[in-house]
Amino acid sequence: MAETRMVVRNISDTARWAAVFRANESQRPDALFRDPFAARLAGSLGVEIADTLPEGNSHAWAWVARTYLFDQFIEREIQHGVDLVVNLAAGLDARPYRMQLPPALLWIEIDLPEILTYKEQILAQETPTCRLERIRTDLSDRTARKSLFSGLAARGEKILVLTEGLLIYLDSPEVLSLAQDLAANAQFQRWILDLHSPGLLHMMQRTAGTQLSQVGAEFKFGPPEGPPFFEPAGWKAVEVQGLLKTAARFKRPPLGLRFIALLPDSKGAQGSRPWSGVCLFVRST
Fold first, then answer.
1. Which residues pair with 193 in a beta bridge?
2. What's residue 266's pLDDT?
3. Of the four, 45, 63, 252, 279, which is 20 to 30 A from 23 by CA?
4. H/E element holding 18?
């Protein structure tokens, strides 16, 4: 059997993969969101990644539901007084350009230098709808991270943190450490993140994860506790929305999965059940 050619070069390339699904959704007449920049950001490499990874195009509905839920949570939190959005591992997210945001809102993107430079080049002629800054740093450097968070805390009174598509690439101690560092600053009040069950994590590890792990993008985080995992670190979940149920509302998943979506959706531990969702947390310490 011929070997599958490796297309993904590093963890940052997964942002191009995600952009493919935003681009495809934006072309639908019934699109749940419009991202006119996604196709350019994904580029031909993004399409090739989606076409090459095992099941790389099989779960578009989940990517779309995740984006939709993040959008909904962000809009609501801004309406409730958030004055600074901090997007950790921002990748190729284009929300500061595609969403109608308050002009006075400060949005800060944090990621590795290469991916942010690439995005700046693609969007050089575009104008964000709010104040936008980018910070190049390696979030795995805890000393630098804590210093960065401390500085950001001085720039906002009600800060919303986003980690879309980040935590799954960290192990449990790393996620706990990140959660603790965020909670150490009182201004970091809200946090939106996506979460996977152990059952879904294992499925992902056997498909796309087989190639991603070879370039340092291993799927790792799917806590057995579910959202309560974050409580010892000072964060409490106040809303949890499953991706399948959300996607089924808009008839995005295959028909068979829509029947599964009728089952009750637990807000706690999911165990071996393939489940993923978007969660809104509040700082509880």
1. 163, 279
2. 63
3. 279
4. helix 14-26
